[in-house]
Structures are given as C-alpha cells and as structure tokens.
Design goal:
7 helices; 49% helix; disordered N terminus; globular; alpha+beta
Length: 184
C-alpha cells in the first residue's frame, strides 16, 4: 500500500493551523473591504480575497467542530471552557424564512445584505453549524457604519427547505475563534 500520511495529517505540512487560518481570514476580510471601498471598486481583488476567506472560514469551522465532537466523545465537553465559549452569542439569526427571502438576500446586490426581520442572538456553536451547512448560492455582505465586514448566509434544513438567514461580523467571529483556538 502507498503512503497515506496525507489522509491522516501525518506529515504535518498539509493542514494549516487554526490560528493561522484565523489570521488569514482576518487579512482576507481587510483586503476584501479595502478592494470593495476603492473608487472605482477593485472587483477582481475583492473576489480573490473572498475566495481565500471562504477557504479559511471552512477550515476554522471544521476544526472547531471536530474538536467539539472529540471532546463530547471522550466525555470532557460538558462543563468545559470550550462548551462555555461555544455557548456565547456571536451572531444574529432570522428564522423562519422562505425561499423568496433567501433569494432576495443574494439578489439585493453585493454589499446590500440585510436580515429580512429582526435577528435573534445565535451562539457560536449554532453559527458554526449554520456556516458548515450554508447555501453557497445565497449569501451576501455589508460594510457597517464603522467599516466592519458583516457576512450573511442562507441556510436550509436537512430536507432542503429554507431554515434561516444568519449574519455575523467577520472580525468578531475571528476574535472569538482566537479564544477558542487556545482551547483546542
């Protein structure tokens, strides 16, 4: 049989650390906002930064959820600092929503994302699951009054029916993930 170290991470070079991915997500977000706010906007640079950001976002989400699942399986999750951090509200959730509202999120035009109704607080653990199961075709963003990058995603239920629309500040997400990364 051939070398399978790439499947297990045995060589130590194929998988980026969570702190490095958080750093790269922060940088990608800053580059994205800068490119978007230029006159005229640099759409090519913004698209490249967005693509890089999504790869780092997915890596962060997967690694934190993997660590949570491992802690649950070995009985060390309940009452842990990891559980405490994952229970902190870090996002807003608008639910229930219909498909038309999810489509409208994407069709509002880049940078014009808004929740269809007042959002309710959403914990980090639930946000991670929403990100993991987001619809890649129905997302948007906005730049808030202080220049912060707010990312918005539409999420379906397991039966592919509309579930929710979620928004979270990218910098706040990164800050909270940095705290969690120290626990992994």
């Amino acid at each position: 049989m051939g070398n399978i170290s790439f499947l297990t991470g045995g060589n130590g070079t194929s998988i980026q650390s969570v702190p490095e991915s958080i750093y790269q997500l922060e940088n990608s977000s800053v580059i994205f906002v800068s490119a978007w706010q230029r006159t005229p906007p640099d759409f090519r640079r913004a698209a490249r930064a967005s693509e890089e950001a999504m790869a780092h976002l997915d890596h962060i989400v997967n690694e934190i959820l993997r660590a949570r699942d491992h802690a649950k399986s070995d009985g060390s999750y309940s009452g842990s600092q990891l559980e405490t951090e994952l229970n902190i509200n870090v996002a807003l959730l608008s639910s229930p929503v219909n498909r038309g509202q999810q489509v409208a999120l994407a069709q509002a035009g880049p940078g014009n994302g808004v929740l269809p109704s007042a959002g309710n607080p959403l914990s980090m653990e639930k946000l991670l699951n929403k990100i993991k199961h987001r619809r890649h075709d129905y997302s948007n963003f906005r730049i808030d009054a202080s220049g912060g990058h707010v990312f918005m995603i539409a999420v379906d239920k397991p039966n592919q029916q509309p579930d929710s629309i979620v928004e979270f500040p990218v910098q706040g997400f990164c800050d909270h993930c940095s705290v969690i990364a120290q626990l992994l």
